[in-house]
Amino acid sequence: MTTATNRHSDRRISPVFLGIVAVMAVTGWATWTGFAEQPGIAVFLFVTAAWVVSLCLHEYAHARTALHSGDISIGAKGYLTLNPLKYTHALLSIVLPVIFVIMGGIGLPGGAVWIERSRIQGRWKHSLISAAGPLTNVLFAVVCTAPFWLDALDGVPADFRFALAFLALLQVTAALLNFLPVPGLDGYGVLEPWLSYKIRRQVEPLAPFGLLLVIAILWIPAVNGVFFDVIDALLRALGIDEISTYCGQNLYRFWTETDQFCGVSS
């Protein structure tokens, strides 16, 4: 008998995801080799594709953890295929986070998977499901920054180095924002199982607006300054200086005037 746990098609990697990975690989190669006549375009496509891949892996981590915690409905919903179109609304899950990357260089939390929590027993399992997504961003950030903190940058082209630095910035901001204990974000999901029923009921109506509240607060100059000071400190601890992230974003935004200080051409 075919069930939600053993249908092979429920776990087959989506061609959409494979296509995005292919774009990331080709444009990463073009950035490394300098093959592209317009390196900024190659960096833009490389970082954007890598960012969408990380969004998919973030949601896949939630889904996979939920599956192993008892929610066998996950597969039938398509969450194990890594298809970005399966993670709730395509506009809110993929397009909006990409727009925020373009506008401000912030790794905005993206999609979400619908988990049937009633199938899952144990508070630790619920917390782990929520933590799995941002922990994926942490892992992605570690991979992106590895050449920096391993002091393995010899032979790495400047354009590719800057692209990795900017991508690391996005992953660190995404992890930090997701771990905030704000209703609607993963950080609150980690804490929620340990809160009283009364508190959960009082906070529940705020969940749909949690992310909007965070975005609004980040528009306050003083808060924005503190937020990016924390991000810069974390990146420095991982071996990335502000110049690299600045030049990565400058190169990524190829439609703007290139800062000659970065030594890259648009």
UniProtKB/TrEMBL annotation:
Entry's family note: Belongs to the peptidase M50B family.
Alphabetically ordered keywords of this record: Cell membrane, Hydrolase, Membrane, Metal-binding, Metalloprotease, Protease, Transmembrane, Transmembrane helix, Zinc
Coarse class of the protein's main subcellular location: membrane
GO MF annotations in UniProt: peptidase activity
Membrane topology according to the record: Multi-pass membrane protein
Localization of this protein: Cell membrane
Claim: Kinase is one of the keywords in the record: no
PANTHER family on file: ZINC METALLOPROTEASE MJ0611-RELATED (PTHR35864), ZINC METALLOPROTEASE YWHC-RELATED (PTHR35864:SF1)
Gene Ontology biological process terms from the UniProt entry: proteolysis
Name the record gives this protein: Site-2 protease family protein
Cofactor(s) essential for the protein: Zn(2+)
